[in-house]
Amino acid sequence: MAKNKSSHLELVLIQLISDVLEKSNKEALNYKQVSAKLNITDTASKETILDILKQQTRKGVFSEPERGKFRLKDLKVYLTGKVDMTADGSAFIVPDDEFEKDVFVSSRKLHNALHADKVKVYIYAKKSGRKNEGEVVEIIERAKTDFIGVIKISDRFAFVNIDDRKMMQDIFVPLSDLNGAKNGQKVQVSITDWPDGAKNPIGKIIAILGEQGENNTEMNAILAQYGFPLSFPPEVEKEANAIPEQVTEAEIKDRKDFRDTVTFTIDPADAKDFDDAISFKKLENGNYEIGVHIADVSHYVKPNSPLDKEAYGRATSVYLVDRVIPMLPERLSNGVCSLRPHEDKLCFAAVFELDDKANIITEWFGRTVIHSNRRFSYEEAQEVIETKTGDHAEEILKLNELAYILRDKKFKNGAISFESTEVKFKLDETGKPIGVFVKERKDAHKLIEDYMLLANKKVAEFIAKKGKGKQKYTFIYRSHDSPNLENLGNFALFAARFGYKINMKSDKDIAKSLNYLMEDVEGKKEQNVLTQLAIRSMAKAVYTTKKTSHYGLAFDHYTHFTSPIRRYPDVMVHRLLAAYLNNEKSANAEEYEVAASHSSSMEKRAADAERASIKYKQAEYLEENIGNTFLGIISGVTEWGMYVELVDNKCEGMIRLRDLSDDFYVLDEKNYCIIGQRKKKTYQLGDEVQVKVKKVDLSKRQIDFSLIQ
Predict the structure, then answer these.
(1) 369: Cα within 13 Å, side-chain hemisphere
(2) Whole-angstrom Cα distance, residue 23 to residue 36?
(3) Terminal alpha carbon distance of the chain
(4) Same structural domain for residues 150 and 191?
(5) Using CA atoms, how far apart are residues 244 and 336, in angstroms rounded to an integer?
(6) Are 221 and 163 spatial neighbours (Cβ–Cβ below 8 Å)?
(7) Taking the CA atoms of the chain, what radius of gyration do you get in angstroms?
(8) Nearest to 77 by CA among 98, 103, 42
(9) Is 679 inside any structural domain?
(10) Is residue 657 part of a domain?
(11) Any idea what the CATH number is for the domain that residue 699 is in?
(12) Containing domain of residue 101, as a range?
């Protein structure tokens, strides 16, 4: 064995020896005893074991409490974690134990581990001042084996060039496993084998997505990349199609009837699934009865049915630039469950009596039947608010007035208002982007949001207060932890450069400061950069059965009750609420925690797919603008380049550091900037720069800019 660097076999032996010593309950063993436990009998192998014991003792991995006897030191020689691949093919292993530091692994020591795989890594003895370095010794679980890419076919073999930037290897495909794929097509390929020592894995084509560059092909490629199915299984469609649209009198009899109360929906103009409606009635005592009626999906989707299993697996609808991939088949999402106007519809509702100051006098939760009088688009409802005339003007204006009060109370209690810009594309009939615009959020959007927040908050509080300690009821909450103070401190330092101050004395002070910042920054060039950085400094919201608070909204308890057509957690919330209103016992917490965790991960996956579709359309839009010059804002800095967001159309691309020829630039991570080593010129996050569109790679959804200096 080489003295200076361990072979892979040696690492495996070190691991096996460590396992033996770990199981010896601190008893020191000699090399013969270790060999016996490993079923090693030949003399040469026993001597190898002795060599390793002595070598690793010198390195401080083992100790020798008495001559010839060895014990494992209380050190973490191995750890498990997930691979986080970098652009150059090396990786960091992010440990499962959050208190451990990341371990750097060079590309040649990954031993076929891929991005996001769960691995076991051997940690080398650390030299003073150096970061943890190691080598992958076991791939515990592959994150994925299916990839999307473009197939290149020659006379004797084929390769798939993978779209995913974190997949460094092409996949070799034998000609017998092409399954009809033609050269240059976009395909889905599955890894079937990766022989030891082989540079590339071997795979087979499992789906042909179409011709590269076609809109349908690229959108389907994004869905396949993130693991979302392109269609529903036949048994699921069959079950959905068998559900009658007609609401029976027998069903109505068991519900609170709101069909004679003014009710309407307010949604985007192009929406087809309407899962929430608002009813409004002025009471004789001068107060207002406001009902938040939500499509009663759980009435139609029964636990463990094919429909339910499919909805659970998907966990969410996916919203790409030009299409929605629904969680439920269209028959339900756009038909049976959708709260369409002038039809009797079954709902689950939260109904409140509010006074003129938006104080809640009474609340009621239960199943209802409604008959929506009108379907408003946001633009139509906004016109009623602005002109004070039109259909149901009296109801909408009063709802808006009370919504303002609810919003004000929320912010006074410490909620944070993040108003990041939402980019929309104008597409032609082939799906090609011919324009980009920023979507405005006006009172009509906020009005609906405020009543949905009220319903979600009050449903969560109702269950949270029903039982305490061991008597608490299992429920699905939407949890949002308070921010990491170090992350927030870094953001505060950066915001100070723009003249904004963050008071970090208490959670309420932080919230108040952030709200002032969001107000001040609105409409300014740095709005998106500061908003995105502020959001990144926050914890991520997740689903959980634990009764925790929602920091961003400043609510002690919060859930998702209002969108069961497009979110599976809301379906679970409806089922649990119905059971507890019926005085049933608490559900199994472990089972629901698993479902909550699955929903959180699928929500992230859907958000990633949505971002990928936006990136693709941005690249497609700028492909027509290669060579053109734009004003941009530096929106991110990394060790390999600067991200720049264009002011006019919010498209984002990169200036690569290797393309900056006037100096050698390095990243200053703490100060969000890159600095030239000789001339000390600095490019700071938030700086304005002039850029030219240099290159667009549609398959990788990458835009390269060159800096005009």
Answers:
(1) 17
(2) 14
(3) 54
(4) yes
(5) 8
(6) yes
(7) 29
(8) 103
(9) yes
(10) yes
(11) 2.40.50.140
(12) 78-141
- Residue 649: CA atoms inside 13 Å, Cβ hemisphere, count? 20
Residue type, 26: K
> Cβ contacts of residue 311 below 8 Å, gap of 6+?
301, 327, 328, 568, 571
Are both 49 and 119 inside the same structural domain?
no
pLDDT-wise least confident of 253-262, 501-510, 543-552: 501-510
Q: Answer with the one of 89, 124, 141 that is the final residue of a domain.
A: 141
Amino acid at 289: E
343 phi-psi bin (left φ>0, alpha ψ -120 to 50, beta other): beta
Q: How far apart are CA 147 and CA 200, in angstroms?
A: 14
Sign of the Cα pseudo-torsion (70, 76, 81, 87, in order): negative
Beta strand 146-153 with 134-141 is unpaired
The Cα–Cα gap between 550 and 552 comes to 6
* Exposure b/e, 471-494, CB count within 10 A at least 16 = b: ebbbbbbbbbeebeeeebebbbeb
Q: Residue 49: inside a domain, yes or no? A: yes
Residues 6+ apart with CB under 8 A from 313: none
- Using a cut of 0.85, tell me whether the model's pTM lies above it: no
CA dist 709 and 707 (Å) reads 6
For 305, residues 6+ apart whose C-beta sits below 8 A from its C-beta are 239
More confident residue, 310 or 417: 310
- The overall longest dimension of the chain from CA atoms, in Å, is 97
Average pLDDT, the chain: 90
pLDDT in tens, 649-689: 889 999 999 999 889 999 988 778 899 999 999 998 888 99
Angle between helices 568-581 and 306-314 (to 10 degrees): 120
The encoded tokens of residue 122 equal 């051997």
